Amino acid sequence: MTGFGAAERPWPEEDRRIVVEVRSVNARYREIRVRSDFGLADERSIHEAVAARVGRGKVTVVVAARPAAGCAGGAAERLAAHLEVAFERYGLAAAAARARGVPLAPPGLRDLLALADAGATGAPAAGPPWLAEVVGEAADALAAARRAEGRVLEAELRGLLDDLDGALSGVAGVLAGRERDLAEQLRAKVAALATVGLTEPAAERVEQELVVLLLRGDPREEQVRLAAHVARARAVLDAPAQSGQGRRLEFLGQEMVREAGTLATKAAGSGCDDDLLRIRLLVDRFREQVQNVE
User: Fold this and answer.
1) By CB distance 3.0 to 4.6 Å, which of 14, 86, 168, 172 could disulfide with 116?
2) Whose CA is closest to 267, among 232, 226, 228?
């Protein structure tokens, strides 16, 4: 399922604020990608915080340490100390340059920080000790968005299953008289062969062929299995929410597609072609939608 979550917390010790954004899109398996200003230092804790809340989907986590405007604290004091070192070193360099007759251009702030080797403009090497908590807050917001989408998706899946039940009932009513219709068709073909001079087979032989024909082409087996899959899918939706339900529904969707295809082949020409087409369309929609379920 798709979703978005974000969280933010000030980090006054570094004159910064931690901003976390978590996005997810549909995917068959769980894949978590982390982009953090702290590199690999805190990637494991970030990954674990998200994995505890998301069971499926492609998830992107962005963790940024951004400047906190108007925050005066330890980092500002350190920056001032670095600048003092930079001015002292620049003074020494300027004196050496004048002694050799080399003109120097006025330095910018970046030049001074580089001269002092401050490194104060980059993010700290490691995040704050509460970083995983902020990531968890963003992941909770993502999970809430996914649950909201899940409620809508559940209603859609239940509607598809109800429509499948209706279409299967229509097919069952037509197939109830299929044996009689096949017997009449076979006898009519045998009688037509007799009119062109061929020997009419014995009634017992006709019955044997009819039994073989019914066994090979009886679609009620697929109809029953498809109805059973629909019932199992509804039971999964009725069960308490838990990880892995999406995979079970996806398996049932694949089985429904297989049974619906065989049913349509065997029952073709039985007078229920519209219901058979509707079943295949509903099953395809169901299989597509369950890929979004966790």
Assistant:
1) 86
2) 226
